[in-house]
Amino acid sequence: MASRSLLQFLSGFSRPAVGNASLRLFSSTSVCRATLQTHNVIERAPSPWTLMAAVCLQRLPVISADCSPIEQQFRQMMHQMEQEKSLLSDHELQLLEDAERMSRKQADDYDSDREDDHGDQEIVLAQDLEDSWEQKMKSFQPALRVTADADQDLTSSERCLADSLVLLAEQQVGGEPLWLLPQARWQEGETLRQTAERALASLPAGLKATFLGNAPCGVYKFKLPQAARTESTVGTKVFFFKAVLSDCGGPPAGPGGPLLWAKKGELRRYLKPAYMTKVDRFVLGL
Amino acid sequence: MSAALSRGLCRALSRHTAPSSLLLGGHHRAGLSPWFAPVMTLKTSAPLRAEPKKKKKVDPRREHMLKERMRKKLKKMEKVAPEFIPLDDLITPTKCLDETRERSAPRLSFGESEGRALLLKEWCRYKQEQHMAEVQAVELALEAQREALEELKLESEELYQAALKPDPLLFPFTHEGPAYTPPKSKYEAPDGKYNDITKVYTQ
């Protein structure tokens, strides 16, 4: 018993001795400190969170949005005000001159010699010019702004050209298919942005995107239910990276999980509530 | 004949001056220099004897200096400050000052002018709300990013450092903005000719 207590006493001594040694090492040069720190890092247990990176791919609007009622009213008013304050243009002056000349021709005492005439040239009236311009414009058919069919098709990236769309994919998470931003698991030796690029490349459609920077724009922490928790995994952390769609080339739909293009308002229908609150913050609905 | 006379006269004068100078030399007083010959005798100094003038070394240098100074002054006077390039946008073209171009100002009824004022105020409020919403949205996004970076730092230091690095390939970044109608596939734009009449100024 005494020996045991002696052993305990000695072990008690040895621990602070080790502590003292580490303190002495700390007080020496910074190089030693750095090496000690890296030593500590290597010694630290690997974090219990599994890292994943997801890509928030956005197709930015292609056409300008429709004006709200107040915007329409204001636009009309501004147009009127600007016209009132403006000066007559060359074309308008020409129109007035032509109208005057016509009225003079119609008058009874018309004297064609008095006119500072243009000889035998045919006078092109400004009104005729206007008509010919209108004809030319009518012959051009612009593409339609809103196509009801395309809007309904959730998988096409041509829907709702006036809003920005976010890509969603249905992936298997914990055995269940869930709608979420396309994600991939982080592997050793690559940065998180490379993981996100891999996640985008793994999708069936050949989408080309420009990633906006190396830093993640959001994070979502998910703790596994108590039953599934082990010593090494407590949950997952998903880091989101923003990307802008640059080219929609490649086959429109291929094998693999279904894809969706959703507006910000429609995200609520597909994403889980907790996930939605995190994603809602960085997807700008401007 | 006249030349012989002048020569004779010169010789006589020189004969005269020589004994006079000797006499002067004999009656030398303190202060008298050989330059100050008495008024009575004809001055026969070097210029009269028509000898070639000896050039002093200092003169050419002085002349050179004078010329340099004159040249520098001329250069300074010639240097004019470069004219400013006129800004075409800020010059009102004379066409706009033509009186025949003025529109007749329409008379607005009281109701209309009131309506306009009220619409302007509503627009002001609408725009302010829009702006505040924008600012809030941007702040939320920044907050989300800050949280993400914090979480990443807790995870691993090297991934955090890699995330902080700037991306050199991102800029220059261009994106075609929204137009009124979407682009037409397989549209052939007609060829157009144009004459570029922009004025190019050189200073």
UniProtKB/TrEMBL annotation, chain A:
Example GO CC term: the record gives: mitochondrial inner membrane
Q: Which GO terms describe its molecular function?
A: structural constituent of ribosome
Tell me the compartments it is located in.
Answer: Mitochondrion
Residues forming the Large ribosomal subunit protein mL46 N-terminal domain are: 49-147
InterPro entries linked: Ribosomal_mL46, Ribosomal_mL46_N, Ribosomal_mL46_NUDIX
Q: What keywords tag this UniProt record?
A: Mitochondrion, Ribonucleoprotein, Ribosomal protein, Transit peptide
Among Pfam families, the record links this protein to: MRP-L46
Protein family per UniProt:
Belongs to the mitochondrion-specific ribosomal protein mL46 family.
Q: Return the protein name.
A: Large ribosomal subunit protein mL46
Q: Which organism is it from?
A: Cyclopterus lumpus (Lumpsucker)
